[in-house]
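Many introductory courses stop at the sequence. We go one step further.
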Amino acid sequence: MILKLAVAAADQSYVQRLMVVLEEYDNLSLAVFTDKESMELALDSKKFDVLLFDPAFYSGRINQEAVTLPIVLLDEEYGLAEAMKALDKISRYNRISLIYRKILEMFSEKTGSTGEVADTGQVKVTAVYSPAGGAGKTTVALAISERMAAGGARICYLNFEEAPSEDCFLPQKAGHGLSELLGCLGEEMNYGMKLQGLLQKKGENLYYMNHFDSPNDFYEMKEEEMEELLALIRGAGFFDHIVIDLGCGMGRKNIKAFELADKIVLVERCHRMAVSKQKVFYSQTHIQNLYGEKMLRVKNFDMGEKDGQTDAPLPLTARIKRLTDADAAMVVNALAQEAYIEPVIQAIM
């Protein structure tokens, strides 16, 4: 959906700064007014989804037929007329990226449900899992996401770990991400617009949201809520592929993720403790019977050893050489460009 946004403010330097950032978002159609008269003339003949306006431009009412959602561009240094106190407000001193997200969130809540959900069958889901901590699971998940995005696919990376670890590569900005989206389930709102307000972007095609605000948000999420979250994101029509970074446990939510995924990437490490945990995982024959056909084994930190997981019921899909760069983001970027990960990409695309 393209949102028709009108900005009306007398401070031309501020409006110019605002436009420089907002013009980067391809889901906005922008109109600008720097005086009250031109704004009122436009509202007599045109319709806008959102009007973000300076309080000085307010004449006592906004034409509801011309504007779906009026938002006051608030300057805390100045008081508001009584008639404006009931309107939605956004501080002009917020970062412009936050102003953008707030506009989308407010509009989604104002307009309600989008109705029909798009066909989700074309959006593939890959779950990345390891029963052992320290196997480099998140690095592999991010490298897979980066590699597919570089190839032109629109990727959504989601971290469903109890203790997330992707912050060095994908910084968590202001906003509530997965926690906020989870809290909105069941409400009447425009979820596509809400999702756009929560998404962050790295590069051309890689999108992500903040991970859960706290472990409690993750622990309290029910399996059916996880399924609903994924259905919502798949149905939004923004992505070709969703990559879910799972925690190391083997609880019901991870089992639900296995069920919902098209492919499951199992990240292993040839280390005594890791091998022991991997052996326990592979001994759970009921999991292998249910989801084994989806699974791809990836050996990380490969130093040329023989496959230490001799009891694994699956052949190795890929061996990823140990990369020694200490910077996590650089390791992910380097791995995404290496040939080691290509067999995994071919298997899940």
